[in-house]
Amino acid sequence: MDRVLRDPGCARRLDCCHFTRIVEHASMSSALRITFVSRKWPPAMGGIETYAKALSDKLRDHGEIQVIALPGHADGSPPSALRLIGFGIAAGFRLLFAARPAPVVHVADMASWPLAFAARIRRPSGRRVLSAHGTDVSYPLRGGLRGRAYGLYLRLGALLTSPVTVVANSAATAAGAARFGYRDASVVPLAANLPVAGGTPETAGRTILYSGRLLRHKGCSWFIEQVLPRLPADVTLEVAGMVWDEAERAALADPRVRYLGRLDQDALHQHMAAAMCVVVPNIELESGEFEGFGLVAVEASAAGGLVIAARHAGLVEAVRDGETGFLVAPGDVEAWAEAITRIADWTPDRRAAFLRRSKVVCADYYSWARVASETAALYSEPVHDR
Question: Coil, strand or helix: which one is 166?
Fold first, then answer.
């Protein structure tokens, strides 16, 4: 578990009526009781959904866990606003009137801090934990009325939930949380949500893969418009993911782009392993929005893909440069084109050797067992809040 100093300027390195999951019991004889709450849950598709499910599953090894979650739709889309409101109210009542409140209440994203506040009212001496993701702390940077309002909302949460521990997925996210008054934070980098198994392709085609939501800061349209034209004409791009920003959709019409839409996990991993490389081309925006971690980079490496990602924000902790992939300056067109061209020229032996080593590193470090162990360790640490 990585930490940075605690001070005011930085942080430590269903239907809304059917949201409650079954109580899971750990095999431990002296189990710590944990209530884990998440408004983001499969089959909805996204990094926080993956995080919530994988972490809560592995926390069973550390205690008795009750999960209260709101599943998304079968097509991968999130619940409606009405269902989210209903879930928040019902989950709040569950925490507020729990007959036997758990000593630890872990809320899976910062936007849901009112649930931690409900837990504080019910059991003031209990441990309250908030997971922080990039969107949690970068959304206010978008500005406008919504951005400013959300920033004030986060600051209010810091006051009402204190003392509270933040589990941040990167140092960039932890620093962002500190800007809104959350003084006690630990950095726990995320993991790959799949077993690291199978072989690595000895050869690769001439297709690059982008996987993820289509949002401006994730850089897909930038890559299509700026980098793809500088690559050899036989190099094409596959795009897997859902369009969240309609402004990004226009770039998909490029004749060298094949839009795959949303893929199931097995199909996505096959595309990752077969691609010449998987790109995570996040760009820097004037607003300062950033990627909290970049889980797709870890999953691609674990699946046998060769990752090239922007050296930006949380991606520096999602990619071990030279070991699980390569980091390139964000927005540097020439550097991106050069990095991809270099990879395209690798011999099959060199490629296979790199990918074998990359998968070993992923198995050793980017595991949900490690994430759960580091997170569970925080539940018993002293709270340092000012």
Answer: strand
Residue 242 lies in a domain: yes
- As a 3-state breakdown, the chain gives helix, strand, coil percent values, each rounded to 5, of 40, 15, 40
Specify whether 125 is located in the same domain as 225. no
Same domain for 351 and 235: yes
Residue 230 maps to a domain: yes
Q: Which CATH number belongs to the domain containing residue 129 in this structure?
A: 3.40.50.2000
**Structure tokens given for 72:** 């998304």
Judge if 148 and 219 occupy the same domain: no
Q: What is the pLDDT along the chain (386 residues), one digit of tens a residue?
A: 544 433 333 444 433 444 444 344 444 335 799 999 999 999 987 778 989 999 999 999 999 999 999 999 988 888 999 999 999 999 999 999 999 999 999 999 999 999 999 999 999 999 999 999 988 898 888 888 999 999 999 999 999 999 999 999 999 999 999 999 999 999 999 998 665 455 555 556 799 999 988 889 899 999 999 999 999 999 999 999 988 888 899 999 999 999 999 888 889 999 999 999 999 999 988 777 788 888 899 999 999 999 999 999 889 999 999 999 999 999 999 999 999 999 999 999 999 999 999 988 988 889 999 999 999 999 988 766 54
Backbone angles phi, psi at 349, to 5 degrees: -65, -45
> Cα(169)–Cα(249) distance, rounded to whole angstroms?
29
pTM of the model: 0.77
Residues 341 and 264 in one domain: yes
Cβ density class 154-192: b for 16+ within 10 Å, e for less: beebbeebbebbbbbbbbbbbbbbbbbbbbbbbbbbbbb
- Domain limits at 349? 207-365
Tell me the C-alpha distance between 158 and 151, whole Å.
11
E strand or H helix at 305: none
Does residue 8 lie within any of the structural domains? no
